[in-house]
Amino acid sequence: MKKQELVNAAIQVIQAEGIQKLSLAKIAEVVGITKPAIFHYFKNKQDLMRAVTEFTVVEYEQTIAAEYDKLPENDDLRHVHAFLYGNLRQLNDSELVKIHAASMEVLVSDDEAKKVWQNVYEREFAKLVPEIGDIQADLLSVALDGMWYGAMCGVWDASRAASIVEYLERIIKKE
Questions:
Q1: Residue 173 · residue 77 · CB < 8 Å
Q2: With bands split at pLDDT 50, 70 and 90, how would you rate the model's confidence at 1?
Q3: CA 75, 77, 81: angle at the middle one, nearest 5?
Q4: Where does the record place the HTH tetR-type domain (predicted)?
């Protein structure tokens, strides 16, 4: 048994039944262990939910970094493009969108999880600002946040994402 198996089970339960129905007993059932065995890995349910948030952040940041590495070093907007393409890649992955939705539900009740995502935003913003300035970085972040929100609520048509990203690139480049 590994911590990641419990995190995956928590994500599975949240995706299937929502965070309101998440319990350590259900997670234990999915993994095939007793509820007390979970406490070997996590202090409590909140601790497990922070691990779900951390998992989501790692996935997010790895995707952005992978996109960054694909781009040519002479790209004047390398961070911007990595941010756009990484988010687009994730928005087109319905399972990953569900995991993000589960992670976002944790934010409602956990200030520590909120701080984790605030740090992610601050790091991304700090990379974008030197390339495009703070106003355009805000615009880009808000536009992508809206796309994420729509995807998590099931009202976003991912097929439009590429066109919107292209439009955002034109705005950023001031074409």
A1: yes
A2: low
A3: 100
A4: 1-60
